[in-house]
Amino acid sequence: MDKQVTIGVHILQAGLNFEQVEKICKTAEKLRFDSVTLMDHFRPFLPPKYRNLLECWTTLGALATETKRIKIGSLVSCASYRNPALLAKMAASIDHICDGRLKFGIGSGSLTEEFEEHGVPLGKPRERIARLEEAI
Residue 2: inside a domain, yes or no? Predict the structure, then answer.
């Protein structure tokens, strides 16, 4: 069985406006990349930490209508930040809008500062993995 190699573009959308993110995404689509993913954080994790950061899921919703072929998704959504039923509904809605092109990435989270800033208990890795398993 032949395996197909795919190459995607990951956008660290910190400091970018939507027009810039859209241009990167459309350029990646034109150049025949397989996918574009966005980071799903509440604020930039690289300095400077306090600048504009487009929210991942609402931005994906907009990109779903502005692209035609390229897969779009998050790299990755933290299971501890959103109610799993709501996250599933958001993902399903975007997948319908983009005609099945959503790449869904979910993880346990690890950015200590982000957990603390938003009042979400970090917990030990075992606890985060248990939350991830429950969310899935």
Answer: no
